[in-house]
Amino acid sequence: MTGTRRPLLAANWKMHKTRTEAREFVEDFLPRLKRTDADVVLCPAATALAAVARALEGTAVGVAAQNMHEEQQGPYTGEVSAPMLIDVGATGVVLGHSERRELFGETDAALARKVPAALAAQLQPILCVGETEAERDAGETQRKLRHQVQTDLAAISVDQLPGIVIAYEPIWAIGTGRTASPEQAQEAVAFVRALLGDRDPGAAERVRILYGGSVKASNAEELLAQPDVDGALVGGASLDPAEFAQIVAAAPARG
Ligand code: PGA
Hints:
The chain is α/β, with parallel strands linked by helices. It is built from eleven helices and eight strands. The structure holds 2-phosphoglycolic acid (PGA).
């Protein structure tokens, strides 16, 4: 069944790149993008979303925000809503990144509202889940993933499930240079798929589940070769157009 899922490679730029730097990236990156059998998404800072969306017009590369408020508008100083993201050309949104959870107090309760709000606005959610090093060492990885997946997707119907992307990102591998082994990535991603399978096995086979955490050009191929790993959410290595293009090229053709 893995053959039916199209690879997805997403560049999470975090708090990097001005509009000019983002446009320079796109100019350098697009000619390097040789394949049409994989989905590619750039996730710039909110300030560069419009510029990146404009630079990508007429291409198949998508643009996703890194966060979103669940309400459409209101007294939420500093926040941005789904209609606002659509307005600047976003096609998706990263939700529940561990940096938002750990540094900015993002809760599973909020995510349970954000995921359906994104879908309702026609933004593709990329929901991040993953365990800390202490949780892994304590044998708590599956418990943590079960809690996050069940809570964050509680309001999502079986019909909506295939429209969601999940990124398994072990927190101990993010920005540390310590990548999960291909076996660890496959095991956790397959577990997340099994959790979705408890809801509906057919839908679970259609959901794309990415791996994230210190993915680089040098390790992408073995991680992306794992049967349940449908792509990658790439942080640091996605800031460089040549390296991100190499990572896109490393995804095996499927479908
Ligand atoms: P990293 O970040 O590739 O720099 O480890 C991944 C992420 O946080 O999405």
